[in-house]
Amino acid sequence: MATGVINLIVYQKSYDLAMKIFQHTKAFPKEEKYSLTDQIRRSSRAVCANLAEAYCKRMYQAHFINKLTDADMENYETQSWLQFSLDCKYLAGEHHRELIEISREVGKLIECMIQHPEKYSRKTIGHK
Questions:
Q1: End-to-end CA distance of the chain
Q2: pLDDT (tens digit, 9 = 90+) per residue, 59-93?
């Protein structure tokens, strides 16, 4: 993977969130393995994957924004699964708050990218 996307704060935060979710979901009940655990891990990882795809498509503004909106959608989905995790008592309140806060930060950064895609063009940031 190009190091450029890894250097983006939004990517770093979303990756950190996905890894924290991975660690917390290790303690989820076994019966949730193919449902809640799998879904929350997939959606949190999909934020990173969509950011990476967006970064690769940044010279095509419409494609860039499309992949960013996919990342935003996955981020909202992750928040939904986090709420289920809290309500099912699989996730402690303080952990839920921490993860939701990171997710909200990621969402704000994605929204900024959507609003200002020109700041991320290959010409602006000097990457291939």
A1: 12
A2: 999 999 999 999 999 999 999 999 999 999 999 99
Residue 38 lies in a domain: yes
Q: How far from 66 is each of 11, 81, 82, 117, CA to CA, in Å? A: 16, 23, 24, 11
Q: Which amino acid is at 25?
A: T
Range of the domain at 88: 8-125
Pull the structure tokens for residue 56.
Answer: 């690769």
pTM for the complete prediction? 0.90
Distance CA 55, CA 95 (A): 30
In three-state secondary structure terms, 10 is helix
Place of tokens 């806060």: 101
